[in-house]
Structure formats: structure tokens, C-alpha cells
Specification:
The protein has about 220 residues and is of the alpha/beta class. It contains six helices and twelve strands. Helix 1 links the parallel strand 1 and strand 2. The radius of gyration is 17 Å and the shape is globular. The structure holds 5-O-phosphono-beta-D-ribofuranosylamine.
Length: about 220
């Protein structure tokens, strides 16, 4: 394992429960990372309080104060780069990003999306999964590309839907899994086990022909 902690910046827009899972994993010695800063595009969100409680530097860049997506992204990029992160972690960051921004962090920016991508890109994934009557649902960790929720997939946690599932129960079940698998993937980066080259993800130098899966609390490659 690397002895130096992976320097990360986490971007949020809301509750920050994934951020909390990372903070906890670091405290528990399961994640060898240092969160240099948490940046939110919305003021006064719970995720900022969580960061402050953990003694992490926070910044708010309120997107409503910018005339264009480009201007906002440029400011965000400047702020992120001040911290020189090795990895940018999107954790419930509800913004569509410009190509410039995505290109700047190519291969070093991860996102979590609450569906088994490529199914259900975009919003309201749990309702859409229920409406479609799928047997399985889940959450994906992926590198970020120019396509919305479309970058190379790393790891997906999969659940079987129950008859009794509704949006609330799915939200809770999926969140619980996000909190396990997102810190796990970041730890792979910290250990230099994960990389993406020409849109192909490699784990331990092996090309992943399909995303790694987390099923019933076990990693399946
Ligand atoms: C998560 O469900 C994540 O999949 C999605 O946004 C939500 C963020 O939750 N991208 P939180 O702010 O980490 O609690």
C-alpha cells in the first residue's frame, strides 16, 4: 500500500452522505486518502456541515452567480487546482459539466450514479427502475467522460428488487451500498490498482471487460 495518502477534492451539492462515508473510511483506516477540500455549488447544504465537522476546508461556488456554465466551470477548476488533487470525486454533485472541465480531469475524476448504467442515466432513477419493472437495480461508480453518466464503468453494486420496494426503500438500499463501494474504489486508486487508458478501465493491470460487481457483500470480477 502507498504510504502517502491520496489527495482528493470532493464535489457535492447536497446531503453529502457519500462524503461522510469517505470521511468515516479515512478515520477507520480503510481509505488512505486526504480530503483537501469539499466544494459545493449550493450554499448551506448538510454536506458542508459534515466537512466542517471533520475539519476539512470548504468552498462554496454558487452556480446561480455565474452567467454561463463555462464561467462557473472555470472558477471551479481554479478552485480545485489550488488543492492539486490526484483525484476529483463527484459525490452527489448535480451539475452538467463542460467538455473543457471534463477534459481537464480526464482519467482522474470519478462519479457515483444510482443505477446500473447504462440503464437510467439522468434523474429519478429509482422511480424509473420501478416503472420499468426491472428485476435488478443498483449503483455505478464510473470515470467521468463528456457523455452524461456515460464514462467508463468501474464497479457496480447490484440488488434484486423486492415486491415491496418503493422509491424510499430503494433510495435507502442503494445509499447503503454507495457508502461501501465508493470508498472502496477510491482506495483502489490510492493503492495504484486502478487506471483508465483510452476509455478502458484496468484493475491490477487487467482490463475490465465488464464492470466489477458488488453482490451480496462480495466483489465479483
Ligand atoms: C447519491 O444517490 C448519488 O448516487 C447521486 O446523488 C446522491 C448523493 O447523495 N449521484 P449524498 O449527497 O452523498 O447523500
Amino acid at each position: 500500500m502507498n504510504t502517502t495518502a491520496l489527495n482528493i477534492v470532493v464535489l457535492i451539492s447536497g446531503s453529502g452522505s457519500n462524503l461522510q462515508a469517505m470521511i468515516d473510511a479515512i478515520e477507520q483506516g480503510q481509505l488512505n486518502a486526504k480530503i483537501s477540500a469539499v466544494i459545493s455549488n449550493r450554499p448551506n447544504v448538510k454536506g458542508l456541515q459534515r466537512a466542517e465537522a471533520a475539519g476539512i476546508t470548504t468552498h462554496v461556488i454558487d452556480h446561480t452567480e455565474y452567467d454561463s456554465r463555462e464561467a462557473f466551470d472555470q472558477q471551479l477548476m481554479q478552485m480545485i487546482d489550488q488543492h492539486q488533487p490526484q483525484l476529483v470525486v463527484l459525490a452527489g454533485f448535480m451539475r452538467i459539466l463542460t467538455d473543457d472541465f471534463v477534459g481537464h480531469y480526464a482519467g482522474r475524476m470519478l462519479n457515483v450514479h444510482p443505477s446500473l448504467l447504462p440503464e437510467f442515466r439522468g434523474l429519478n432513477t429509482h422511480q424509473r427502475a420501478l416503472d420499468a419493472g426491472v428485476a435488478q437495480h443498483g449503483v455505478s461508480i464510473h470515470y467521468v467522460s463528456n457523455e452524461l453518466d456515460g464514462g467508463p464503468l468501474v464497479l457496480q453494486a447490484v440488488i434484486d428488487l423486492n415486491q415491496s420496494d418503493n422509491v424510499e426503500s430503494l433510495k435507502e438500499r442503494i445509499h447503503r451500498l454507495e457508502h461501501i463501494i465508493y470508498p472502496m474504489v477510491i482506495q483502489w486508486v490510492a493503492e495504484n490498482r486502478l487506471e483508465v487508458i483510452n476509455q478502458q478501465v484496468y484493475l491490477d493491470k487487467q482490463a475490465l471487460t465488464s464492470p466489477a460487481k458488488w453482490i451480496d457483500n462480495q466483489l465479483v470480477l
